[in-house]
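Entry 14. Structure prediction run on the chain below.
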Amino acid sequence: MSETKLMKNDEKHRYELHLDDARIGLIDYRREGDVVDLFHTEVDPEHGGQGYASALTDFALRDIAEGGLMVKPTCPYVARHIKSNPEFGGLVAGR
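Output returned:
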């Protein structure tokens, strides 16, 4: 049975999703003061459509919220995800 692992990789400035020993998804970020700009999301094409991007985005947004930070959803996927999940709307900087 495959095992997924979600993690924050501070050194590479990204959130990662691993399936067994392989990284299959990531969200790149930049921190600007108290705002985290999530600017790029990707999941390996062979794993698309299985909810991995959503799980990774939820993980990143929860981590940002727990850190008392705000988010700048530059990545179109992240922006759509926040719009579809209003519980994260309060995290958006400038609202």
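Strands lie at 4-9, 14-19, 22-32, 35-43, 70-72.
Filed with the rest of this week's runs.
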